[in-house]
Amino acid sequence: MFIPHTEEERAAMLRTIGVPTIEDLFKDVPAKYRFPKLNLPPKLSEMEAMAQVQEYASANESTQDMACFLGAGAYHHYIPAVVDSILRRGEFYTAYTPYQPEISQGTLQAIFEYQTLIANLTGMEISNASHYDGATAVAEAGVMAYHNFRGKRGNIVVSPGVHPQYRQVLCTYLCGYHNACIKGQDLPALSTPSDLIPLIDADTSLVVVQYPDFFGRIFDLTELANAVHAQGALLAVSTNPIALGLLKTPGEFGADIVTGEGQPLGIPLSYGGPYLGFFSTRKQFAHKLAGRLVGETVDKNGERGYVLTLTAREQHIKRDRASSNICTNQGLLALAASVYLSALGKQGLHQVAELCYHRAHYAAEKINKIKGFSVTQPAPFFHEFMVKYPQPVEEINGHLLDHGILGGFDLGTAYPELAGHALLAVTEMNSKDDIDYLCEVLEEAAE
Amino acid sequence: MFIPHTEEERAAMLRTIGVPTIEDLFKDVPAKYRFPKLNLPPKLSEMEAMAQVQEYASANESTQDMACFLGAGAYHHYIPAVVDSILRRGEFYTAYTPYQPEISQGTLQAIFEYQTLIANLTGMEISNASHYDGATAVAEAGVMAYHNFRGKRGNIVVSPGVHPQYRQVLCTYLCGYHNACIKGQDLPALSTPSDLIPLIDADTSLVVVQYPDFFGRIFDLTELANAVHAQGALLAVSTNPIALGLLKTPGEFGADIVTGEGQPLGIPLSYGGPYLGFFSTRKQFAHKLAGRLVGETVDKNGERGYVLTLTAREQHIKRDRASSNICTNQGLLALAASVYLSALGKQGLHQVAELCYHRAHYAAEKINKIKGFSVTQPAPFFHEFMVKYPQPVEEINGHLLDHGILGGFDLGTAYPELAGHALLAVTEMNSKDDIDYLCEVLEEAAE
Amino acid sequence: MNEPTIYELSSPGRSGVHYPDLDVPKTALPVGLTRNILPMPELSEVDVTRHFIHLSQKNYSIDKGFYPLGSCTMKYNPKVNEEAARQPGFLHAHPYQPVETIQGSLALMYQLQEWLKEISGFVGITLQPSAGAQGEFVGVMVIRAYHQSRGDTNRTKIIIPDSAHGTNPASSAMSGYEVIPVPTDALGNVDLEALQTVCDSTVAGLMLTNPNTLGLFDQNVVKVIEIVHKAGGLVYGDGANLNALLGICRPADLGIDVMHFNLHKTFSTPHGGGGPGSGPVGVAKHLVEFLPEPVITIVEEGTDEIPPLYGFHKPAQSIGRVKAFNGQFGIMVRAFTYISMHGPDGLRSVSEYAVLNANYLMTLLKKTYKLPYDRICMHEFVLEGHWSDAPGVIALDIAKRLMDYDFHPPTNYFPLIVPEALMIEPTETESKQTLDHFAEVMLKIAEEAHSSPALLKEAPHNTPVTRLD
Amino acid sequence: MNEPTIYELSSPGRSGVHYPDLDVPKTALPVGLTRNILPMPELSEVDVTRHFIHLSQKNYSIDKGFYPLGSCTMKYNPKVNEEAARQPGFLHAHPYQPVETIQGSLALMYQLQEWLKEISGFVGITLQPSAGAQGEFVGVMVIRAYHQSRGDTNRTKIIIPDSAHGTNPASSAMSGYEVIPVPTDALGNVDLEALQTVCDSTVAGLMLTNPNTLGLFDQNVVKVIEIVHKAGGLVYGDGANLNALLGICRPADLGIDVMHFNLHKTFSTPHGGGGPGSGPVGVAKHLVEFLPEPVITIVEEGTDEIPPLYGFHKPAQSIGRVKAFNGQFGIMVRAFTYISMHGPDGLRSVSEYAVLNANYLMTLLKKTYKLPYDRICMHEFVLEGHWSDAPGVIALDIAKRLMDYDFHPPTNYFPLIVPEALMIEPTETESKQTLDHFAEVMLKIAEEAHSSPALLKEAPHNTPVTRLD
Ligand SMILES: Cc1ncc(COP(=O)(O)O)c(C=O)c1O
Ligand SMILES: Cc1ncc(COP(=O)(O)O)c(C=O)c1O
Q1: ipTM for the whole predicted complex goes beyond 0.90
Q2: Interface test with D, best of C17, C50, C434, C438 (most D CBs within 10 A)
Q3: Which CA distances in Å does C460 have to C399, C444, C455, D24?
Q4: What's the whole-model pTM score?
Q5: Quick one: closest CA in A to B429, which residue?
Q6: CB distance from A18 to chain C under 8 Å?
Q7: Does A41 touch chain C (CB under 8 A)?
Q8: Residues facing A355 on adjacent strands
Q9: Span C298-320, pLDDT tens digits
Q10: What is the pLDDT of residues C65-104, one digit of tens each?
């Protein structure tokens, strides 16, 4: 199976080492704790293990079995077959961090390209090699801003329109930092960027907004950016990469940091992970950036090559003064995003974004016409929009489920003031027919 | 998508060629037949095409949804994940016939190893690179034997225990040959090898048996081999490669040609294809062998290399005097078989064969005890055994299907005299629990 | 780097894939009928993976680069095809499942038959043949059955142009026919006069490749077919070159009676290092009843709500079976997916761009390499790989030298009627940039052939092994 | 061969993946909020495939060969794991699906929690952390929350041995702690005296890696833990080296309070060229209520017929969330599959053979390379890559020279306490043959270092690029 040793080989190796048995190699382990009996099920053969896994998997219903109108930070997009065909290459997935550049040029160039793609997509200058997910990317933006002002500005203003879980993670990450304080959490759920401005002051290191926000709303961030910069603070924008196939970039608004969840870029839903946190910023912050960074160089023959750069920021060298503890990140998913963006290209990405945009608006308009349902939120929005339901969201969602539809996110669970509202997501996977069917079932549900 | 040309590139290329439009390249096509309108559905995007294909696929029930006791030449075995991980390598599946050995050593060495594995498995000296399937491998044995005697021996004696479709294919292949005649077709279905002996005479070029035969029966072929050779004829044995994990090889019995269906060696059922015909023989017939053959050589630096060898047999050179017309064969499936055999190895193959053997006998014994059912056929058998049903096989199979069981092959469809008999197959995929469940449902069916 | 064989890597006692322990009582093994040694290798999974990964790295492939192997249509194989064919409902279906449980596969096959009819103009299709050569065999056997069914038993010959692929004569011979070659004329067409001469009442048919293996559309194709038909023969079309004709011209419209398709060429199913392929055969009306069994058919018409029930049909005068089960199903799924993604306009574009690419490349090369038949080509063209002022350099040297530049060489030494043939088929999936780069290298090699021929004679220089014979 | 970047390969106007045409009316785009240029590359699918295939070919990987990168446990990644994680029911499940629709995933996570508990001896597990470093962060935050919950707010320091991985001090600092290093003694253990000295009431805890990064099991581990506990501190275990301890010793039994697992090391989930990993954290009883949310739990007990209903639980004094959604689920499936296929005996074998391999290789090399701590090692060992009689040659040169022999080098320059460190972790999946071959090459390189050092200084010689800084 996976341990190749034959009896003879083991015996020969023990002879070379000079111990009689393998057990003798463990004498440093306190005898009383040595060789505990593990109460685990007996081993399965590969075919049994696969059968078992299939049994678990088939106990799920998934977006392959249901029409999915659920988003809220994870989106059901089509993944072109070419993406997984590349991810399945052992050369990529069984390598590790490219510590030895000469035999890691594949990984290094792929990351370099990923960085370029993300910088271009977000309208920024540089990008790192990835974060764990969209949430920790926001958190690391908080940490970076904190360090940027050497801890002298403790406040981080966060819009309630930032994904609720991202805000939680930001809080967890920052709570060990002296003086750090997250503001804006008690603003009304549907606050707009301008509602944040009064909270920004000389103690503010960072302002964080989501664009489009958690409710799918698209706001002009110019005014906010000006206000942030007027106070000498930084602006971080957590964004949706597919929306940027269509929308003005955070960079154009003047964002200092752009983060986001890269899952929509060719990464399967996979019950929430592994996903991809992306993080881009301006050149001036290169030394403050967490994580890995790949740069271009030349070898002695003038041949172009790629290397991990600015590693002095990393914990291997800086230890307790490192800008972050991140080590293993989401390399393979960054590769997925690169292949996805390359495969779709300019036209494809734009087309997907348009399909999402127009279909979501079509759905909103149509749902708004159903008796009892109302879409109170004005256009424009992307991927998602909020609907007021005539009955508890859970009930309606139960009804949808019975009709093979995975309903929207129950906003009341994250924003008590929005109880009775659902957040419905529409992507290129939801055809007009799917949307029409959803409307039918919704109508029925309300009866 | 797949055609990369931009408008500008097309225009530039036409300028270089010196024609104004692409249409002008087709002036040799008679105008009246030029540019027909094809009545085909409009093109689908990748995501639509995948959705369509998924719809078709899910209109099937498959052995993944049902407990499968159906065999009859195609078997439900477990395919270790490593097999497909290799088959998905673009380097293998997007290459073609290794005409240029220096850049095809991967394919060539893999075929060479396949040939060695098959020769070793069947107990023969040489193997070719593959045939289309088990049926055409038998047919090509017939053609080879015919040519071996320069058409002077027209008779081929074929056991009724050879797969009915293989016999049909043999007939189709041979019917263009002067004087060729297939004998033995009117013997009783359950004839034994010794029943063939009276049909063998000086006009016999070849005797074909299946081992284990279509009914799963395992016969000693020594006596038959002696009788065949006494008449100066050749013996071809169509065999089951998994059974050879356990059983005496056809080579040991004195077979001159061994063929078989390689599907059980790591190839998905895939509704009947693509499969793999294997074909091995003795060195003395190397020049008579159809298809490709890879041999070992050294380059000028003494480095070992592999090449297509004895190509003078092939139709590129010999044209109408070639030993066969086979060109494209089943290369990728031969690779699958190599990976499968390497991954299972000596222990694994033996273990699979044992599981099949013992479970089949367990099932037979248990079914035989069910009222109304009888297993008339004495042990030993492999993979399969014949059961007499108390009701028409179709009816019982219908009942099984209702209980999620894919029942056995209805022998009456191929052997009218065996109406009311089913051929049940058992592999390592059928656990004792599955078998017990089958018995329960059978018992119920007969009530 | 030499890669050991799996047997050399084997270590006695090492175990690979494990299986469940036996859960039923043992039955005695048949005495005297078990084997004593099972000479299979003994490896761990890591050994196996590394071995085959190492081997794969020694291969050239379309996924790696340009593969202009003439007559083989080495177009890019879309990755979605691979996913399509691996849908569990397809992958795990047993060939003997009751038809009611397998309607998805049958519907797909039926649809593919219909589409192939529409593309080619034929009236009947069998999906059963495993590859082009088997398609040829089927076609010739169908021709044979046709004549026999009419009691026309004197027809013992098949005419085959000298430019034809070797499988054509081999298939004819397998079907019991004598093969009569006809020459190619100066323009690259079938020599009409010669054809006339051999066309008599002993002729069963002609095997015609059009566009032929020179990449040329026969300018007299209608006439050629007429001559054969007049003599009472039928015309077989070798569809290996169909990539030039999608939406351009339907072979049946020209009068061809029977033709095979190469799904692994025209319809982008991968070549697998030498297969699997798939070689469906299309026939005109008068030949439908001779097709091999099974043909997929509608056994019960559907309604608006209920889909039709698909099943099998055995043509009345079928030549029989040529393969067990139902053909290379997995390959059909790939071709089906490919056709779906193209639609009528997309298919026509395929051929248009295949022909554009070939003519473009031919234009770039023909000043430097001799082009024996200089006219607009279809999807491929044939050059001569030798020069009188570069004695000693042959086409093979050019082929090997191309490897040094990371290209797969063109087909060598075929068709036989062109000396030192280099048969180049770029396909439509290659970009202008790739063609320009290839042309540049070809011109450079032509120069090297004159200035430093040793570079060619000793090529390839960077491959895992040096030149092998 | 230089591979152009995807932007260099781009051709204006070229299109990649196509999507359906819009089937609903258009809505006006938000004025002033759309982008004018979308600087994405323009490629066809064949461009994309070839590009990434070319890149892949420039990588070393476990699938290609021996990868003894110390501290990273580069064991073979079973192929079945990849299939398991790609089961459609897993792959297409949305993280916010109602729990009733996702019992398969939840049951798997629950089971994995239980198994990790059993393997480690801990009482509570969170599967949420994304990798080892995030696990450390979680662990230290849990320690912090524990002290705070007791009103013990004076503890501002975390003690970390000088041999520790850089993530340990970084994680402590992120959690607001001051880092106090303790030295390693001559035998490679934590210096007890030094530890005693720094252990006072300001100490929140100790981060201990055991076996440590020298590959040595701390011979005083129980004592070390006792000292910290006596001072009121807690002990964090860095579980990166758990591959030495499966079925050998349960960290919780030793008294460790909290520890992270690296599923991507110990449990064979692939490293992906730098992730994704997964870093579950196990805690002793007194820390269970501080775990991040969510923990998977049984919300309704099952019966013989009805399986239990699984759901989420938020521990009462949870440190909060450290990641959106439910952790790196796909990685959990792989680890789950791996554990299933090993069972208790198989897991113990993993560690036994990992340790056997390391000791064997150490024995073969230690006469030639200086072994600074010469005693039986666990799953890895650290050599010094320099010799006084080969001036100028450093560990890096040896690393680069190994590439010429098709090996991945060991970890370089870590742990920091060994000069010119070469940290070698063979893992249990490598065969004696591979180890013998590696040892042979290492001895040859040692010889070359003395006889022809330029060979080392100029290495690597056959890589796509020469030495890069
Ligand atoms: C012109 C021509 N005809 C027939 C064939 C035979 O097709 P296959 O290889 O699919 O059997 C080929 C294959 O290369 C060919 O090029
Ligand atoms: C000893 C040790 N601790 C912690 C880590 C960090 O783990 P990860 O890379 O999963 O974040 C590593 C990783 O290399 C390590 O070797």
Answers
A1: yes
A2: C50
A3: 9, 15, 9, 57
A4: 0.98
A5: A47
A6: no
A7: no
A8: none
A9: 999 999 999 999 999 999 999 99
A10: 999 999 999 999 999 999 999 999 999 999 999 999 999 9
